[in-house]
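REVIEWER CHECKLIST
Item 1: Sequence provided? yes
Item 2: Single chain? yes
Item 3: Sequence as submitted:
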Amino acid sequence: MFTIRAWTKFDISAIAGLERECFPDAWTEEAWTAEFARADVFGYVAERDGKVVGFSCGTALFEDSEIWKVAVAESERSKGLGGALTDALLQTAKERGATRTFLEVRVGNRSAIGLYQSRGFERTRERKRYYADGEDALEMKKDL
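Item 4: Structure as written out by the authors:
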């Protein structure tokens, strides 16, 4: 069983470590610390047996929100964590007054695209060479 909870600054190290496992272009702990200081940034962690096994984060400002990252440890994938973390972000964005949300996802990340489509996201456009390694991104949008 896992627990979803709002993240705290005490989760930064675990979040940064998990992100390094999941993404080739991971942020540093210093970058995460800076993001935690922003009022428009919010996020969640998924814990199993006291260990962070997933996280999600995004922003909400006025009517727009954006999902920045959803990450789940490889050993915990396909168990509903990504969906639960995404749902938590969408609920918070609504509570903060957002009426729509956006995200970018690697065009090759079929499981993430499927997750977002299952939550009502629609493709809006491709962004060529969006990522540092040259991979294209798919921009997606959902009305809240």
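Item 5: Key structural point noted by reviewer: Residues 81-95 form the longest helix (15 residues).
Item 6: Recommendation: ____
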